[in-house]
Amino acid sequence: MDFFDKIGKKASQTYEKTSKLAKEAKLKMAINEKKSQIEDVYEEIGKKVYEHHISDKSVDIDIEAILEEYCIRIDELCDRIEDERKELLTLKDKKQCPNCFYEIDLDFKYCPNCGTEQKEIIVQENTTDNQNLESN
């Protein structure tokens, strides 16, 4: 029976690693897609500025308002990228140095890249998951 327990445990570990890698890949793809969308918005901004430059100046167009809308879209995409980047760090059991933004292990006291002392991060477990497991 011990043999089957080992196989089951190994299969479970492999599944967890594969699942984690799949989540990381999915997050990286989502980040890259949003970066591509930001590039598209930059291109649209350039087109609008040029169109305004060559347009009939007698037509009253509020170019600043138009550009503000594009900038808000970029801000929203950047915020979503940041959220996904933080999730990716969590999946990889890493944190980011606040000084140089280097990815480091959670238990590092100092950044190996720049030497900045790291503040301790307290990791909280999801209590609802633990409560659900205990109630079953």
What percent strand?
Answer: under 5%
Largest sheet: 2 strands, antiparallel
Return the domain count: 2
For the termini, the CA-CA separation is 25 Å
Number of helices: 3
Coarse structural class: mainly alpha
Please give the radius of gyration in angstroms: 24 Å
- Which percent bin holds the helix content? 55-70%
Shape: elongated
> Care to count the β-strands?
2
Keywords:
136 residues; single chain; mainly alpha; two-stranded antiparallel sheet; elongated
Question: What does this protein look like?
Answer:
The chain has helices at 2-54, 63-91, 127-135, and strands spanning 94-96, 103-105. The chain has 136 residues and is mainly α. A hairpin with a 6-residue loop joins strand 1 (94-96) and strand 2. Helix 1 packs antiparallel against helix 2 (63-91).
Concise account of the structure shown:
It contains three helices and two strands, in the order ααββα. The chain has helices at 2-54, 63-91, 127-135, and strands at 94-96, 103-105.
Spell out the blueprint of helices and strands.
Elements (H helix, E strand, L loop, with lengths): L1 H53 L8 H29 L2 E3 L6 E3 L21 H9 L1
Antiparallel strand pairs: 1-2
Helix pairs in contact: 1-2
